[in-house]
Design goal:
The complex is a heterotetramer, with 2 copies of chain A (about 325 residues) and 2 copies of chain B (about 210 residues). Chain A is an alpha/beta fold and about 325 residues long. Chain A has 8 helices and 14 strands. Chain B contains 9 helices and no strands. Chain B starts with 6 loop residues before the first helix and ends with a helix. The chains are: A alpha/beta (about 325), B mainly alpha (about 210). The complex binds adenosine-5'-diphosphate (2 copies) and magnesium ion (MG) (4 copies).
C-alpha cells in the first residue's frame, strides 16, 4: 500500500490534525471527530450538519464554513459516524433555530443519523433530516436499501447552506433540501479500485482491461463490469442513464463532474469535453458546472457525474457567497 | 441450578466474541470487500475492543453488562453494524433474568434479534446478519423443547447460525450496501451473517468451556 | 493504461475542449492551445503569460483569470510549449504595457520562452521573464541545468498577478516576480510513477516498498530511491532539505502542499499534520497555506511541499481577490 | 560531379529520418523514461510528421528545405529537442551551397551543431545530442580529408555518431532534464544522442541508396 500514513488505525485522527493545522478558521472537536465553523452559529440561523464515512474529502469537512455547512461529523474511513458524533455536532451548532441533518442514503448513515436525531430531540433540539438518494446506478430501489446518496449532496449543501445563511426557518430549509435532493441524479464509473488504509490492498480486483460502471463511493462494486472503453463511450455510459432516469426534459441544470481521488484533472476535463455535448443533445441546459475532486473514494481512479435540475432559486442560492476549504466564491 | 448462566459467563462470552472477531477480522473484511466496502472486520474489531476496554470495571449484572456493550458498540462502530449490533445487545439486557436459564437466555437473544429487525427492517432471506440469527434462535428453542440446557441450546444455535451464514451465499441481497449489487451479490457470504455466526459460536464455546 | 482518454495523441486538444465547455468565462485559442481570460487586457495593465507542458493541471491554465494569469500556453503532455504558442499568447494579451513571462527552469521551457520573447520583441512587445528554480532536490546546480521550477510558480502567479491587477508597471511586476521566485523552495516525493498517455505504461518502475525522494514534476526520477516510509518520516524528508536550503531563519511564510494527482486529499491533510509541527519547530511561521492538487504530475501518487518566505507585501497581494478555475477568493 | 548532393537527396534524408524516428519511437521514449520524462520519442515523431506533411510541396532549394524543417520543428515539437533540432536545421540551410559536395555539406552540418551548442550551451561530455553530433562531424572531416565523397563521409559520420551515442551511457548528465539525476544518470544512453545517431545514419543510408 503506497499511502501517506503512519499507523492505518490513526488515519482519521491524524488527518483531522492536518485539517486543524491548515484551517485555523475552523474548529475541530477532536474527541468527537467533528469539524465546525470557527464562530458559533448566528442567533436564529438554522444549522446544517452533515457527515459520513471518511475518504470522500473534501466532502463533508471541506464544506464547513460560511454559506454551507455548520458542522460535519467524520466517521472512520468508509464507515458512517456514530450517533454520539452526530449528536455532538448537532448540539454544538444549534442556535435554537433547529438543525438540518443532511444524510446520504446508506443503511449505516441513515441508522446512525436517525439515532442521533432521536437523542437530539430528547435534548430539546429541533432536527429535520433530508436523505439524499441520487445514484441512478441503483436501478431497482424496491428491492434494495434504496438509491445511494452521492454528488447531489455537495450541490445540496451549497444551495441549502445559502438559504440558511439568509435566515430562512427550519421548515423552509428542510423543504428546499428535499427539493434539491429530488432534483439530482448521479452516476459513477471506476477504472480502478480504491485501497482502504486499514485493509492495505485494493477492495476489488479489476483487470487491466475492465471497468466498473455504477460504482459506489465506498468502493462497492458497481452494477456491471465492462471492457475498458474510450472517454467518449464512458461519457455515454454516464449521461444516458441520468437523462433516462429524469424521464422528463431536464432544462436548466447545475452539473458536477467529480474525480474519485486518483484521476487527474486533465482527464476530468477531457471527459467533460465528451459529456458536455451529450448533455446538450439530451436537452440539459448546463447553467453552472464544477469539475474537480469534490466527492471522492480514497485513491480510486474514476469519476462521477451529477446533474441537478435547477430553477432560478437554486441558481441564485448557488451563486451566493461561500467560504469553505473545498468551495469558495463571492467572498 | 447448573443450567444458570451468570454475569461472569456472559462477560466471558463477550470477551470470546471479541477474540473471535479479531481472529477473523481479515476474513470478515474480505467478505465485505466482495459485496460491500471492506470495513466490517475493522468496524467490529474496533467496537469490541472498546467494549472489552469498558469491561475492565466488571459489570454487576447482565443488564449492566449489555447496556455497556450495546452503548459502546453504538458509539464506537458506526456503519450499519454499529446501530444493529448495538441494538441487539441493548435489547438483550432488559429481557434477561439473572441468573438466566436456557429458556430465559433464549428469550433475551430473541429480543435482541427483534431489535435488529425493528431497526433494520430486514426480512429473512434479505442476506443480512438476521439470516444467521433467526435460524440460531429457532434451533435454540427446539433444543430447549427437547430438554437441552443452555450449553446444549447454544451448541445447536451455533451450528444453525453457521448454516444460516452459509445459506446467505446464494442469496441476492435486499438490504444494506450489498443490495446495490443486485444479482452480483449472489455467490458470496454476507459479512454480518458471518460475524453473527461467530457470536453464537463463541457463546456455545464459552458455555462448553465452563463445563 | 486506465485513463479517461480516446486517442492518446488527442489528449491535449480534447482536454482543452472540456476546459472550454466548463469555463465559458475563459477563451481558448484552439489552434495555438492557449487559454486566455474572456476579456481583453485592461489598458495599461501588464499581462502575465505562463505555460509549460500539460499534465500539471490546474497549473497553468487553471490559473488564468482576474488577479492571476492573463494567458497560459499549453504544451503537449510533459513537453514545454513551442515559441509560436507562447508568442500567440503574448501578442493576444499585450495591452501595450508589456508582458511578463513566467517560466519554470527546464531546458525546454527556457529555450522555447526565450525564442518567443525574441520574436515578441521583434514585433514590438516589451517582454520581461522570470525563471522559477525552486526545487531543492537538485542540489548541485553548478553541474546541472539548474534547479527545476515547481510549486513556487503557483504562489508567484498569484502574488504577482495581484500586483499587475493593481496597475504596476512591467519593471515593478518583474522585480516582484524575481523576489518571489528567490523566496521559494520546494521538495517533492513520489510513491508511484505517473503514466504518460502517449506511452501507456508507467515512466519508471517503483517497487511496492520504495519511493522516490526529490522527484520532478515530469516524472523524472528523483535524487534517491529509499524504502517506503511513514508519513511522519516523509514529512521530515520534505521539510529538512527546504529549511536547510534557506540557511537563514525563514519567519513568516506562505506554504503550499500539493498532491501530485493520484494522492487523495485525506492523505494530503494527514501529511500536512506531520509537516506543520516540523515547520513550526524550524522557525517557519506559516501565515497562509494551500492544500490540494495545484501542481500535479498526471496520476502520480505523491506530494510536493513549497515554502515561500513572505513579507507583508507578499501577504497583502496573496489575500487580494482572485477568480480562476483553480484558485478563487475575495470575489 | 557525382559527389553532388541535391535538394532531392536532402528531402529523401529528412523523410528517412522521420521513418527511422517513427520506427525507433518507443525506444527513444524508453531511453527518456530512464533519465528524463518519457517524451523524446513522441516529441521527435510529432515534429517530423509535421515536417513531412509540409514537404508535400517540394522545396526549391536546400535553403528552403531546411528553413521549412527547422521552423516546423521549432513550432511543433516543444521541449528541449524542439528548439535544439530546429536550430540545427535552421543553421544548415544558409550555410549550404546547392548542389553541395562533401566538404560543403560537412561545413553546413557543423554550422547546425554549432547552432545547437550556441542555444543549449552543452559541452562535450555533458551527455546530450551534441555528444553524437561532434564525433560525427569529426569523422566526416577526416573522411573528406582522406578523399571520401559525401557518401563515404556520411558512412563514417554515422558510425561515429553511433559510437558517440553509446559513449554517452557511462556519462553523468550535466545538461537537460537528465542532469537532475546526478550520478543516477550514468548507465543510460542519452535519448537525444540516440536520435542524433539516427540523423546521421539516415543521411548515410540515403546517400548510399542513391548509388
Ligand atoms: N437493514 C439491515 N438489517 C440487518 N442487517 C443489515 C442491514 N443492513 C446491513 N446489515 C448487515 O450489516 C453488515 C455490514 O456491516 P458493515 O460493513 O460494518 O457496515 P456498512 O455496510 O455500513 O459498511 C451486512 O453484512 C449485513 O449483515
Ligand atoms: N542544453 C542542451 N544542449 C544540447 N542538447 C540538450 C540540452 N538539453 C537537452 N538536450 C537534449 O535533449 C534531449 C531531450 O529531449 P526531449 O526529451 O525531447 O525534451 P525534454 O527534455 O524537454 O523532455 C536530451 O536527451 C538531450 O540530448
Ligand atoms: Mg462501511
Ligand atoms: Mg461495510
Ligand atoms: Mg519533456
Ligand atoms: Mg523528454
Amino acid at each position: 500500500m503506497k499511502k501517506f500514513v503512519n499507523d492505518p488505525a490513526d488515519v482519521l485522527a491524524e488527518a483531522l490534525r492536518g485539517i486543524h493545522a491548515a484551517h485555523p478558521e475552523l474548529r475541530i472537536d477532536t474527541e468527537n471527530r467533528v469539524i465546525l465553523r470557527g464562530e458559533p452559529t448566528r442567533e436564529g440561523k438554522v444549522a446544517l450538519v452533515s457527515g459520513g464515512g471518511s475518504g470522500h474529502e473534501p466532502m463533508h469537512g471541506g464544506f464547513v464554513g460560511r454559506g454551507m455547512l455548520d458542522a460535519a461529523a467524520a466517521g472512520e474511513v468508509f464507515t458512517s459516524p456514530t450517533p454520539d458524533q452526530v449528536l455532538a455536532a448537532t448540539q454544538a451548532v444549534d442556535s435554537g433555530a433547529g438543525v438540518l441533518h443532511i444524510v446520504k442514503n446508506y443503511t449505516g448513515d441513515v441508522l446512525n443519523f436517525e439515532m442521533a436525531a432521536e437523542l437530539a430531540a430528547a435534548e430539546g433540539v429541533r432536527v429535520e433530516s433530508v436523505v439524499v438518494a441520487d445514484d441512478v446506478a441503483v436501478q431497482d430501489s424496491t428491492w434494495t436499501a434504496g438509491r445511494r446518496g452521492t454528488g447531489t449532496t455537495v450541490i445540496l449543501e451549497k444551495i441549502v447552506g445559502a438559504l440558511a445563511e439568509e435566515g430562512a426557518d427550519l421548515d423552509a430549509v428542510a423543504a428546499l433540501a428535499r427539493r434539491v435532493s429530488e432534483a439530482g441524479r448521479s452516476m459513477g464509473v471506476a477504472l480502478t479500485s480504491c485501497t482502504v488504509p486499514a485493509v492495505g490492498h485494493p477492495t476489488f480486483e479489476l483487470p487491466d482491461d475492465e471497468m466498473e460502471v455504477g460504482v459506489g463511493i465506498h468502493g462497492e462494486p458497481g452494477r456491471t463490469r465492462v471492457k475498458l472503453a474510450s472517454a467518449h463511450e464512458i461519457a455515454k455510459l454516464m449521461v444516458d442513464p441520468i437523462v433516462h432516469d429524469f424521464g422528463e426534459p431536464v432544462g436548466p441544470a447545475i452539473v458536477l463532474l467529480s474525480g474519485l481521488g486518483g484521476t487527474p484533472l486533465i482527464e476530468q476535463y477531457l471527459l467533460y469535453g465528451e459529456i458536455a455535448p451529450l448533455l446538450a443533445e439530451a436537452g440539459v441546459d448546463v447553467q453552472r458546472v464544477l469539475i474537480g475532486d469534490y466527492i471522492t473514494s480514497l485513491d480510486m481512479a474514476g469519476a462521477s457525474l451529477t446533474v441537478v435540475k435547477a430553477d432560478d432559486e437554486f441558481l441564485r442560492l448557488w451563486d451566493a457567497p461561500v467560504v469553505t476549504p473545498g468551495l469558495r466564491w463571492g467572498a | 441450578m447448573s443450567d444458570a448462566v451468570t454475569t461472569d459467563d456472559l462477560v466471558a462470552w463477550i470477551r470470546a466474541f471479541r477474540d473471535a472477531v479479531q481472529e477473523h477480522r481479515d476474513e470478515l473484511t474480505a467478505l465485505d470487500s466482495a459485496i460491500g466496502d471492506a470495513d466490517h472486520g475493522s468496524n467490529m474489531a474496533r467496537g469490541l475492543d472498546a467494549v472489552v476496554a469498558k469491561l475492565e470495571t466488571p459489570p454487576a449484572s447482565p443488564a449492566e453488562l449489555f447496556k455497556t456493550v450495546g452503548m459502546t458498540l453504538v458509539s464506537s462502530v458506526g456503519g450499519a453494524s454499529g446501530p444493529l449490533y448495538g441494538t441487539f445487545f441493548l435489547r438483550i439486557g432488559p429481557a434477561l433474568t439473572d441468573p438466566a436459564d436456557a429458556t430465559a437466555l433464549g428469550a433475551a437473544l430473541r429480543a435482541g434479534t427483534e431489535g435488529v429487525v425493528a431497526r433494520g427492517k430486514a426480512e429473512p432471506g434479505d442476506k443480512t446478519m438476521v439470516d444467521a440469527q433467526l435460524p440460531a434462535l429457532a434451533a435454540w428453542d427446539d433444543a430447549v423443547a427437547s430438554g437441552a440446557d443452555a450449553r446444549g441450546a447454544a451448541a445447536a444455535a451455533a451450528q444453525a447460525a453457521e448454516q444460516g451464514r452459509d445459506a446467505t451465499a446464494p442469496l441476492v441481497a435486499r438490504k444494506g450496501r450489498a443490495s446495490y449489487l443486485g444479482e452480483r451479490s449472489a455467490g458470496h457470504i454476507d459479512p454480518g451473517a458471518a460475524s453473527s455466526a461467530l457470536l453464537f459460536r463463541t457463546l456455545s464455546d464459552t458455555l462448553a468451556a465452563r463445563g
